[in-house]
Each structure stands twice: as C-alpha cells, then as structure tokens.
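so my prof wants the structure for this chain in the tokens format not the other one, which i didnt know existed until like an hour ago. anyway here's the sequence
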Amino acid sequence: MIDPLWILLLALALAAAIVLWFWSVARPRSAARDRLLSGLEGAEAPPGRPPPRPLTQRFRLLPWAVALVVAALLLFLHVPTAMALAAGVVVGLLTWQWEKARLFKLQLLIENQLADALDLMVGSLRAGASLMAAMDGALQ
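here's what i got, hopefully its the right format
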C-alpha cells in the first residue's frame, strides 16, 4: 500500500513543476510585452477617436461557463453525478476547441487580407504610384 504522504508529496512536486513551467513560459512573454509597450507610453488616441482594440477577441471563460451550465442542467434532470460532470467536461473541451478554431480562422483571414494588401501596395509602387496612393489603393 502506498503511503498517503508520498501521494501528497508527489502531487505537490507535480504542482510545483507545472507552476515553474508556466512561469518559465510567461516570463519572456511578459518581458517582450513590457518592451513593446514601453515605446507606446506617450502615444495616445487622437481626441474624439476611441482607443484601438485587438483584431481578434478571445472568449476564455465561455467554454467553462457552457460546461458548468450543461453539468448543472444534467444534474437538475437527475442524471448520475459522474455522468453529468463527465458530460460537462466533454462539452467544455469541445467548446474550447471550437473557440480556438474560430480564433485561428479569424487570424488566418486577417493574415490573408494583409498579404493581399501588401501585394497591391508593392504592385502600385512598382508601377510608379506614390506611397500614399498605393496605401489608398490597398485600402480600397
């Protein structure tokens, strides 16, 4: 029989390893974000114009809210607890995958539009148009 103390120590070591891994991934991202934002400190949106917003929007809590609602609904319908929780987790994971696929699709669409705009600008500049005319043509 395994001593419960060893199980607790193993769980604590695993939790510490997970926290250390997340910290090692988050630290360079945070440093890069700080360097990037340090150049934008003096930049403000012109008066009367709202500040810029991200091109894509994440719904990080949506999958788990849906999972909670599904599990609560199944428990309300007197489905066994284990099955209701398992169904909630499965629905949450499926919703999470859907949200990631939606975000990937939006990012791919933005990248394709950016590539098309750059191709239009390069063609216009090679044809002898000014930079502003090339940007206006890509915008149209």
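also thought this was worth mentioning. Residues 30 and 36 are 10 Å apart (CA to CA).
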